[in-house]
Amino acid sequence: MYKSRRRAEPPAPTTAAQFADFMADSEADFAKHYKGTVTSGGEIAAIFMSDTIRDRMDEFKTCFYDATFYCTPRIFYQTFSVLGISRGHCFPLVHALM
C-alpha cells in the first residue's frame, strides 16, 4: 500500500521553493486558498487567504496578529496569522508560512 501511494502521489516538497512551485501548479481543491509567495532576503513566505474573506475585508475594523513556531511544517520556520473581528466574532483572514 505504501509503494502504490508513493507512486500515485507527488513527492513531498523538501524546500519552501519546491512547496511554492507545487502549490502554484496544483489543481487540487486545497490549493484554492493559495495566493502566492513573498520573497525577502532569500527567504520565501507562502500566503493563504479565502476569496470570500478577501471580498469582505472592509467588514473587519479590528485585526490581531499571531505567530507560532510550534505547529509549522518542517520546511518553514514560522506560521503567521492575521485574525479579524466582525459582528462580535473572530475570523482567520490570512495565514503565511514563513
Structure characterization notes:
By secondary structure, the chain is an alpha+beta fold. The chain has one domain (13-97). It contains 3 helices and 5 strands. The chain has helices spanning 2-8, 16-25, 51-55; strands spanning 34-40, 43-48, 62-68, 79-86, 89-97. It has a 5-stranded antiparallel β-sheet. The protein is globular. The mean pLDDT is 87.
Summarize the structure.
With about 100 residues, the protein is an alpha+beta fold.
What's the shape?
A: globular
Distance between the termini: 33 Å
**Major β-sheet annotation:** 5 strands, antiparallel
Number of strands: 5
Determine the number of helices (DSSP H or I, runs of at least 4 residues). 3
Fill in the keyword field for this structure:
globular, five-stranded antiparallel beta sheet, 98 residues, alpha+beta, 38% strand, 3 helices
Architecture blueprint of SSEs:
Elements (H helix, E strand, L loop, with lengths): L1 H7 L7 H10 L8 E7 L2 E6 L2 H5 L6 E7 L10 E8 L2 E9 L1
Antiparallel strand pairs: 1-2, 2-5, 3-4, 4-5
